[in-house]
Amino acid sequence: MTAASVMVARNKQYPKLHAQMLLCPMLDGRVITISSKQSHTNTPCSGVFNATAWETVLGDRRRTPDVSELLAPARATNLSDHPPAIIDVGECEVFRDEAVAYASKMWECGSSAELYV
């Protein structure tokens, strides 16, 4: 929700946000990362749980390109003009790789992110 809220605020030119904090962010409905496979069934928030949650929201579109970045922020191509972010994710959890990729995309776009794994 945080990542999508930041995008809405930027795109609609709402008052400037000064920071964002993403804790164990659920960002990518494709569920194709190594961490989602490593955590497939052996954790409370498993890859199976993650895939089921995304299927509930996106249905058959989950793995197609027809998904808004507001629903799956990992699909965003432009993370410029975002406020500085603190992104915190566990080393052994299902969202690890998508959180790392999101931080990397922020850096690539010139935004600031502190990543804690």
Automatic annotation (TrEMBL):
Name of this chain's protein: Alpha/beta hydrolase fold-3 domain-containing protein
Pfam families in the cross-refs: Abhydrolase_3 (PF07859)
Annotated GO MF terms: hydrolase activity
Gene3D superfamilies assigned to the protein according to its UniProt record, in alphabetical order: alpha/beta hydrolase
Domain Alpha/beta hydrolase fold-3: 2-115
Gene source species: Scytalidium lignicola (Hyphomycete)
Lineage of the organism: Eukaryota, Fungi, Dikarya, Ascomycota, Pezizomycotina
